[in-house]
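Input (Putative Se/S carrier protein-like domain-containing protein):
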Amino acid sequence: MGKSIIVVKSITYAMRGQQLLNNYGISAYIERNLGAASKYGCGYSIRVKTNEAARAAEILKSYGIRVVDILPIGGGGA
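Output:
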């Protein structure tokens, strides 16, 4: 199963988002932005399984965490 990163505006949002998603049963990990994600400015994103990315983004948005982009990052589990 692939992984995706959810790009957020700050490390604070990444940390809040990780905790929030874990509370919803979604395994989430904070990662430094590399490659394509680095163009957004913030140095951090939240990594989740690709099949959970859309749900995770909706949860984050519902709690006021702005999702900048969702980018697939390859194979393997999250």
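The helical segments are 11-23, 53-62.
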